């Protein structure tokens, strides 16, 4: 009887492991859509960026973002291009990046 319950729990665990590895594969390429704004409170120039999974440079919006919206996944924003320098994890909209010491600094973005 003890042997059977052990066998059942082994089956259960391996079923759990295979569903876990499936979900890891399914979420291997998370993507986020990010809206960058020139001014606080989502004002001024807007740039829409797809982080799939990363954006190594921001072109015209480099060092200009003052507020940010994120959709689909959390992202990490970086001070420098190619995901370098200090960073900040963003999981919700931020109306004023100066609250986090990040006004006019974002240069690259990666899903996180
Ligand atoms: Ca920068």
TrEMBL record:
<comment type="similarity">
    <text>Belongs to the beta/gamma-crystallin family.</text>
</comment>
<dbReference type="Pfam" id="PF00030">
    <property type="entry name" value="Crystall"/>
</dbReference>
<feature type="signal peptide">
    <location>
        <begin position="1"/>
        <end position="28"/>
    </location>
</feature>
<dbReference type="InterPro" id="IPR001064">
    <property type="entry name" value="Beta/gamma_crystallin"/>
</dbReference>
<feature type="domain" description="Beta/gamma crystallin 'Greek key'">
    <location>
        <begin position="73"/>
        <end position="112"/>
    </location>
</feature>
<keyword id="KW-0732">Signal</keyword>
<dbReference type="InterPro" id="IPR011024">
    <property type="entry name" value="G_crystallin-like"/>
</dbReference>
<keyword id="KW-0677">Repeat</keyword>
<protein>
    <recommendedName>
        <fullName>Beta/gamma crystallin 'Greek key' domain-containing protein</fullName>
    </recommendedName>
</protein>
